[in-house]
Amino acid sequence: MPLRFRRRAMPVPAEILSALQVPIILVDRSGHPISANPAAEMMFGRSEDSLAEKGWEGLLPPDSPVRALLHEAAAGEHEISAYDVRIALVDAPAVTADVLIAPVAGQGKHMTLAFQRRSVAALVERQADNRGAARSAAALSAMLAHEIKNPLSGIRGAAQLLGSSDDGEGRDELSELIISEVDRISALIGRMERFSDPRPARLKAENIHSILGHVRRLAELDGVKISEVYDPSLPPVAADRDALVQLFLNLVKNAREAAGEGGHIRLTTAYRHGLKIGRPGGRGRVRVPIEICVVDDGPGVPAGLADHMFDAFVTTKRGLGGLGLALAAKIASDHHGHVEYQRDEAKGETIMCVLLPMAGEAVS
């Protein structure tokens, strides 16, 4: 087929595709290439004519994740996004890229296949930061738990004996202060122990809106006002209910502190098609279509902290704070999910989004 004739037949303007630096290939519903822009020709080392004539034969192996994604997109007739995909080539070095597949608007027979080549995809970088935050705190948490938690029961018992003496109100007030501070430290250590717990989370099907409803009731007991924008048709998530309650309570608490008195906090849920993330250790990929966001109208995180906010002990508050978001990252990772920070300056909103798989979601 002559090059000029095929380009005129393209349902996507050739001038637009040629101008884009992102490699884009137009494929039919079977996944066979029809045409390609210059960036795609350079990426795969084949001309547009050769791609259209030979297809993926001799270029992508039969078990290539690109072929699997094309098949999935054609079967589901919706967009597919996969991040940090290692693409093995038959006669060239492997490349790593985000793979984005979408039906062409108004053309039921064609799809665009785009490759965003980066050293590491932005989402995967944030996901790795989440897991790194959990790992970096593990050794410290184990040490503190061993060195501090054992003596706490003795300290608390001594304080209780002090409070039962007849030496006046001053001693009672002091004992209450000691007990309060010991309880606070004990709670801190208990939270840190979760980082070093090697046991896998026990997940079962849960209604995410039931979990969020419980979180809202707990938060409102503390005076927090929350509005809701939910997708009522969401399927169940694979969850450890208590852990997710803790995760979202941490996010709501942070939102309350950021927004201040009179601030507005909103919980939202939505279903996002096609998004996949890698599991720890490269053990396959899992879809994370369930999106839960905690939105506040506070000023956001200072620029210097935004890239490290999921690290343990990174905080703008005084004292031994900075565990809430690191713990949120750990819990999300335990659920094969991801938590990320976004800032919408146009709306003046800070958004903490948690992405989770559906119950029974298979790993690919």
Automatic annotation (TrEMBL):
Species assigned in the record: Pacificimonas pallii
Pfam families linked to this entry: HATPase_c (PF02518), HisKA (PF00512), PAS (PF00989)
EC number: 2.7.13.3
Keyword ATP-binding carried by entry: yes
Keywords associated with the record: ATP-binding, Kinase, Nucleotide-binding, Phosphoprotein, Transferase, Two-component regulatory system
Keyword Amino-acid biosynthesis appears in the UniProt entry: no
Lineage: Bacteria, Pseudomonadati, Pseudomonadota, Alphaproteobacteria, Sphingomonadales
PROSITE patterns: HIS_KIN (PS50109)
Annotated ranges, domain Histidine kinase: 143-360
The name this protein goes by in its record: histidine kinase
